[in-house]
Amino acid sequence: MWFEILPGAAIITVLLSVPIYAMYGVQKLTLGNAFRRNMDERFSRVMYQRDFRLTDNPYLMNGLDAIPDDEEDDQNKELNEDFNVGDDPDQEN
After folding, report:
1. pLDDT value, residue 45
2. Is 58 within 8 Å of 48 (Cβ atoms)?
3. Residues in Cβ contact with 45 at an 8 Å cutoff, skipping those fewer than 6 apart
4. How do residues 4-31 score in pLDDT, each as one tens digit?
5. How far apart (Å, rounded) are the C-alpha atoms in residues 41 and 47?
6. Which pairs count as long-range contacts for 14-20, CB under 8 Å and 24+ apart, including other chains?
7. Cα dist. 84→71, 73, 74, 77 in Å?
8. Cβ-Cβ contacts under 8 Å for 37 (sequence gap 6 or more)
9. Where does residue 89 rank: exposed (0-12), middle (13-18), buried (19+ CB within 10 A)?
10. Where are the bilayer-spanning segments (predicted)?
């Protein structure tokens, strides 16, 4: 009869849907988020790493306000100290 196919169809449907739902848990464990960004191209991987480095959360939209200004000020101060050779008469020691 036609209904004899139902158990086999149910088993096949369940087995084909297991990887889809299992990836939700695997990505939650490995990435800390259940959804994965598209990283097929090198540019996408670089942008993912950049967002993770800047804000520790690559899944939120990041603007210029997400880039910390403290690092630039510290680097500029260090550069200015490196170039200070002591021959500037306007600068006090």
Report:
1. 80
2. yes
3. 39
4. 999 999 999 999 999 988 888 888 887 7
5. 10
6. none
7. 20, 17, 15, 11
8. 44, 48, 58, 59
9. exposed
10. 6-26
Residue the block writes with tokens 């690092």: 71
Task: Give CA–CA dist 69/78, Å, rounded.
Answer: 15
Locate tokens 């196919």: which residue?
5
pLDDT digits (tens, 9 = 90+) for 38-62: 777 888 888 888 888 877 777 777 7
How far is the first Cα of the chain from the last one, in angstroms, to the nearest whole number?
A: 98
Cβ 57 vs Cβ 50: under 8 Å: no
- Structural domain spans, the chain: 1-36, 37-83
Residue 65, pLDDT > 70, answer yes
